[in-house]
Amino acid sequence: MASVDLKPSLDTRNRILDAAEVLFMENGFDATSMRMITTRAECNLASVNYHFGSKEQLIQEVFHRRLTWLNQERLRVLDELEAATRGAPVKPRLILDAFFGVALKLASDTEHGGYTFMRLLSRTNTEPSQFIRNFLAEEYAAVLDRFKAALFRALPEVPQQEIIWRLHFMFGAMSYAIAGTDALKLVADCDFDENDPAAAIAPRLMSFLLGGLRAPLPEIPPKPGMKKPAGQSRTRPPGTAAV
Questions:
Q1: 48 and 156 both lie in a single domain
Q2: Average pLDDT, the chain
């Protein structure tokens, strides 16, 4: 039996994914029409329906294409770190580097779409639809569980709720930083080199994230009738000296 050449079909599928990725990043999901995608991908609507079936499925495939690698790489790095410690907790700074550093590595790919995807992911984190929110929560569930558990082990005396809050702020900082430098230009009267965005962002962002993890515990007034949680008056969370 003669072999079937699938290259044209795969090329069309990849063109659609590439076009959708850029347009979703630039305009958002709701504002990007299927006509915009087919025009940029130089294909017809029947091709999109053949490969993806619906706009919702296309959105999922855009994320699956790179998010699967991103999360697998994060877990691979964390597995190596945990194996190297032979049962001891991994240092918090290494845990953060495994999670956020891998994402910044993907963002450094300006030639094959990594930077575009990370900007899309950052935009999605700040203006998600409920459909996308549910989808990403499912995609991230296992990975976040592993990294939260690693941080809980690394910082046993820091309240777990506080660690979760700080992860939340770290997600926000990374999303805002990768989304672009437009806001940076609002507060600085100078030009910034955007030819290599990751080179400018990565070291500064990682330093900022580590600083946030080392920050003193906040003074949160207890609710009326409730006692103040023990240890909240400390100026620095125990265990962060090894960050």
A1: no
A2: 84
